[in-house]
Write a structure and sequence with these properties.
Layout lengths: L5 E5 L3 H13 L3 E5 L2 H11 L3 E5 L7 H11 L5 E5 L4 H10 L3 E4 L4 H35 L8 H13 L6 E4 L6 H11 L7 E5 L5 H9 E2 L11 E2 L1 H4 L4 E5 L6 H13 L1 E2 L8 E2 L3 E6 L3 H6 L5 H7 L2 E4 L10 H16 L5 E2 L1 H9 L5 H15 L4 E2 L6 H4 L17 H15 L4 H8 L3 H11 L4
Parallel strand pairs: 1-2, 1-3, 3-4, 4-5, 6-13, 6-14, 7-10, 10-13, 15-16
Antiparallel strand pairs: 8-9, 11-12
């Protein structure tokens, strides 16, 4: 704010505008003016004043309307209302809606100037508080442990997540089960402007259809057997914060329609009710399914898919980032040591070698469980291979091509074997396999049919 605070004066009477402009300029204010609420909001957007002084009773767009619009755009800008006795109740209501102060007509010049200067001080404090909160959020983000990994594919996903965290765009995290989708979602929330609000999560595959709708959208008393009271849904409970919806591909079509409404209208209708409830929530969805294929087979709505897939973050499976295994293992070892108050234990070189040779069908979650088991069974400061589960110690060597090829294989034989290998490595996810192969999914579908691959 400059030495001459900028005041936007809004009143539908030209004489009041002129009189107050003379007074405020003499008191060291820079004065902008507007003769209607509509014009005032336009000037507010153009000039960003330090304070707004507006009459309450104006045609079409009242002072209360102006207040609500300004609070939505910039809640730190102080708004002072001028009111006659007949509209005093409206002014008091406006203060409850966020007005900094009100002055009742007729008022003295000294009274008005005192209120304006006090309101400017309040606005200055609010701006400093907002700035301080942002600095605290940045500090917390720097201190927070980010998802662990250094492989190129993982770092690409992490950098994308960090770049979009400050927006309110819907994010779809894609990856195999256990690859760390919820960890990513929480990280995005902590870096966002909503980090001081709730982060709630729900796995769509964990609940039956009827109960899932009640958990998501809430219900009213008597809407179904057992609904003995009104229940607030998770979308309402998470309002102001972030909501992580895991395994969204498991949602049945009837629930998909209701989720689409949330994304389009920003409102939910509780089960058994006809009254919509407004929600303000940032949705982060996740899936391990091939949603494009589900759309083709009629299991998932294409309009919902495009609403969810605004920003897509692909998490690679652990077998595609074997160099990250020592980093992840060290993280789990340190975390457990901090929990029990002991010095972190280490893995032997042979254990690390075994971990990096394993294919990890359960991904990061499976690795975490293996480390926890090894800590329980292992003795001494260094964990040896005998603390690992048998499936890791006795894993067979997996050849790239299972069937013995002819001495001089044709290009078709090699292509078939390679496609089969990539599909197996990607858990039959054809979209990701097509990306690895560098071909369109439609081309991959034709080749699968041509080679009669049983995936």
């Amino acid at each position: 704010m400059s030495d001459r605070p900028k005041v936007l004066l809004i009143d539908d009477e030209q004489s009041i505008i002129e009189t107050l402009s003379i007074l405020l300029k003499k008191e060291g204010f820079e004065v902008l003016s507007a003769l209607s609420g509509t014009e005032g909001l336009e000037r507010f957007g153009e000039t960003q004043p330090d304070l707004v002084l507006t009459d309450v009773r104006m045609p079409k767009v009242s002072g209360v309307d102006v207040l609500e619009a300004i609070r939505e755009r910039d809640p730190t800008t102080p708004v002072v209302l001028m009111t006659a006795q007949a509209s005093l109740q409206s002014a008091i209501q406006a203060v409850n809606l966020g007005a900094t102060h009100y002055v009742q007509k007729p008022f003295s010049n000294d009274e008005l100037v005192t209120i304006l200067r006090r309101s400017l001080d309040i606005g200055r404090v609010e701006r400093e508080n907002v700035k301080l909160k942002k600095e605290i959020r940045k500090t917390r983000s720097r201190e927070m442990v980010s998802p662990i990994g250094a492989s190129p594919e993982f770092r690409k996903a992490l950098e994308l997540a960090e770049s979009v965290a400050s927006s309110d765009s819907t994010i779809l995290i894609r990856g195999a089960s256990g690859s760390g989708k919820e960890v990513f979602a929480r990280y995005i929330h902590e870096l966002s402007e909503r980090s001081d609000q709730h982060f709630l999560s729900l796995n769509c595959a964990a609940l039956p259809e009827g109960l899932l709708e009640s958990e998501l959208f809430g219900h009213v008393k008597g809407s179904f057997t057992g609904a003995v009271r009104d229940k607030e849904g998770l979308f309402v409970a998470a309002s102001g914060g972030s909501f992580f919806l895991d395994e969204v591909g498991e949602m049945v079509p009837s629930t998909q329609v209701k989720l689409l409404r949330v994304l389009q209208q920003r409102e939910v209708i509780p089960v058994g009710s006809t009254k919509p409830v407004q929600v303000d929530v940032r949705l982060i969805a996740a899936t391990n399914r091939d949603l494009e294929r589900d759309i083709e087979q009629g299991r998932f709505r294409s309009d919902l898919y495009y609403r969810l897939n605004v920003i897509s973050v692909e998490l690679p499976p652990l077998r595609a980032r074997l160099d990250d295994i020592p980093l992840l293992a060290e993280h789990f070892l340190k975390r457990e040591a901090e929990r029990v108050g002991e010095k972190p234990r280490k893995l032997s070189d042979e254990v690390i070698k075994i971990l990096q040779e394993y294919q990890w069908p359960g991904n990061v979650r499976e690795l975490e469980n293996v480390i926890e088991r090894a800590l329980v069974l292992g003795n001494g400061p260094t964990i040896r291979e005998d603390a690992l589960p048998p499936r890791l110690r006795e894993q067979p060597v997996q050849p790239l091509i299972q069937d013995a090829p002819p001495a001089n294989p044709t290009l078709e034989v090699i292509e078939r074997a390679y496609i089969e290998h990539v599909l197996r490595a990607e858990n039959s996810n054809k979209s990701r396999a097509a990306e690895v192969l560098g071909i369109d999914p439609s081309t991959l579908y034709r080749k699968i049919k041509r080679y009669q691959l049983d995936i």
